[in-house]
Each structure stands twice: as C-alpha cells, then as structure tokens.
Task: structure prediction
Amino acid sequence: MSWLKRERTGIKTTTKPDRPELPEGLWTKCDDCGEALFQTVLEDNLWTCPHCSHHFRVPARTYIGYLTDEGSFRERHANLVAGDPLEFRDAKMKYPDRLAAAQRDTGEKDACISGVATIGGVPVSLAVMNFFFMGGSMGSVVGEKVARAIEDGMRERRAVVVVSATGGARMQEGILSLMQMAKTSVLLAQLREQRVPFVSLLTDPSTAGVLASYASLGDLIIAEPKALVGFAGARVIRQTIGEDLPPGFQRAEFVLEKGFIDRIVHRKQMREQVGQSLGFFWHSTRGFAPEGAPSPHAYDPNAPRSS
Ligand SMILES: [Zn+2]
Result:
C-alpha cells in the first residue's frame, strides 16, 4: 500500500541522477563512497580513493610497478600457456575459447606474472596474480609460475613475494588446478628450510584454493584494507551453519583481529613497508645466506637498501 496518492494523472516521475552523466574514461565512480574521481587523481593515488581509501583492483603489471623498485623488474617464465587436458566446456563455451577471450581482453597469457626485481633494494623473486584474467583463477600456469618463482628464490637466495588477487582454483582444469595447492605448499616448506623468507600480499579478493595454499603460508602476511580474505564464501558458510555472520566477516580487518594475517597496509605505503620488512630479514640472515655459508650476495650491512 502506498502512503501518498496522486491526485492528477499523467505526471511522469523522473529519478534525478545523483551526479551528472560523466564522460567515460576521464572519471571513475568510487565503488565505496560514490565520489566521482578524475582518472589522473586515481592514478596518482595508485588507484585508491582519496576520500574513503577504497582500493580498486588493478592489473598485475600495474601492481608490479607500484611494489618494486623503479625499473628493477625482469619478467621470467613468460611463455607458459594453459592446455586443455580435460577438454572442458562450461555452460557457454569451451575452455580454449574462454582462455583466448581473456588473453584478448587483458593482453596477457594467463592470470599471473612472475619475475625478479628489488623491493627497497632487496632482491626478490615475485609472482603477481591478475584478477582481470578469468577472476585470477589458479590453473596449472598460475601454479607453475608461483612454483618457479619459489624455486628461483631458493636457488638465487631471493626473498619470495606473491601477490594474490583471485577467486580460487580454476574449475576448467579440475584436479590439475587443485594439485597446484600441494605443489606450491611443498616448495614453500623447502624454502623455509633454506631460510629464505616468503611474504604473501593479499589484495581483494584472496579466497578459496589460493588462500588454502600459498597465500596463507607467508612468514609475513600483509593485506590491503578491506580485502576479502577467506576460504568458503560467506553465503555458503551462512547456509551451512544456519547462522548470520558478524559484520565485516572475511574482510582484512576481521581476519587481522582473528590473528590470521599480520598487518594491513595501504597500497601507497606497500613498497616502503614490504621493503623495510625484507630489509629486516635480509640483515638478520646476512642476505638470506644458508646457515654457516658466506653471503650469496655482495653483502654490506651498511649499504643503502634503496636502489
Ligand atoms: Zn571512495
């Protein structure tokens, strides 16, 4: 029942938009506070909202630019491409067609970019996931790139840094996708034995199979503000336990309070803070040297750590 009755007919209701229509490309509306933001302002703020600090999702290459010392990144393992071992077809299309569409849209071969760089002057081997490529899903290519980044870190005594941005395992690759969880976890255990540190960075979202493997195995686990961090989705958990979930459930702030992650860092401070932490590991292990062995890098405890 409506509270008000219109006496005259024929009057059209128009809903006035809150903001005028904005030309596409120049402005972006903040998903959180709704503020219209100039693209250049967003770029200057590393795609975070200057009003409410909302962190927008960014492609892997953009994130690498934010995280690593300028000009230090060298890509590796760039030619890995997924096969179609299960000849999988989802409700709409075949897996190879879906891959081709994602490759066309993103200009990337799969959902992860890996390579070596420095952060705060400390040598790292890193793998950065790309949510814009099939939801950042982890198939055999993503798993292999993360695995090789860990192996490179072990062999060259570089700290390993993995940035997650993912909905989880890639269903189109079935069990081959799930076995990446075990493969990467085993390598991380070996990395730990080698006394080389692993830093896991969680951006929005970092969920499911990836969180249940390498993303949660960091010596240091850092999340961006309000990033979704969880295994099963909130709806599934609500249905399973038959109870309402607390506010902010599975957000970075919630999992920090529960002790699941170590720290929340704003994207604009990420390079500096990760660099500081790596510097601590670097100095306390004489440049990630094996026990009793000489430092593998030209180690100078007083050397400036910025490149
Ligand atoms: Zn905002």
